[in-house]
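Hi all, long-time lurker, first post. I run a small reading group and we've been trying to get comfortable going from sequence to structure in the token notation. Rather than ask abstract questions, I figured I'd post a concrete chain and ask someone more experienced to write out its structure so we can walk through it together at our next meeting. Sequence below, copied exactly:
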Amino acid sequence: MTATDTLVRPNLARDTRNVLTRELKPVVRDPFTLIFSLLQPLVFLGLFAPLLIGDSGQPAGETLAWFVPGVLVMIVLFGTGATGSNLQYEMMTGSHERTLVAPLARSSLLVGRALKEIAPIVVQALVIVLIAWPFGFAADIPGLLIGLALLAVFGVGLGSLSYSLALATKDREWLFWGVQQSLIFPLLILSGMLLPLDDAPEWMRAVASVNPVNWVVQAERALFAGDLGDVTVLWGWVSALAVAVVGLIVGVRAIRRSN
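-- Answer (accepted) --
Happy to help. Here is the structure in token form:
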């Protein structure tokens, strides 16, 4: 084995770091896209939250303590769920094919991209929390930090699944968005993210009980309230880790078969 062979030999940790760095550069150079993606959660926070506050009859702080964690999960759901479209664009322009022939471990192309999702999630979540704080929202600081970590893990899993969908649909954008939208909205509605499911039909509550998004939402609410030992926190982590593991396994297999 020559010195040159050693230098170009794929290394998962190094290659993942290189891919992660490459993926983060556009975010740093053009943070406007990060700000623009906050419009949807800000609309829900500004227009939907007042309706809940007026309808609940509870203090604004209590209603926001229930609603804001759901908005943060919404950021993850919509943000990472659509991120595969970026990979799809690269596939259509040919840049993805050029990346495949680079001396990089194939799996690093997926893992690095998935890890990139952590930075936007954390930044956007903190912005929403800071905006809601003056209006009565308050969060337990240790719970907030653990909640951000939970969102990051969940986002890595959803991002990996989104990339897998892009690899499967290739240049068929209509199919990517059709599948994505068909999954995102049922997951959102059946998570109790925007409205409580207490008075929902029994079948909806049954489906919600196996919806990982529902458990992550409940875990975030418990964490932000400071109930770190609540059983929903455990189930939230189990759900997020399960999605992350499945997403990475499916994504790595898809990228290895990509050509």
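A couple of things your group might point at:
Confidence is low (pLDDT under 50) at residues 1-7.
The chain is about 80% helix and 0% strand.
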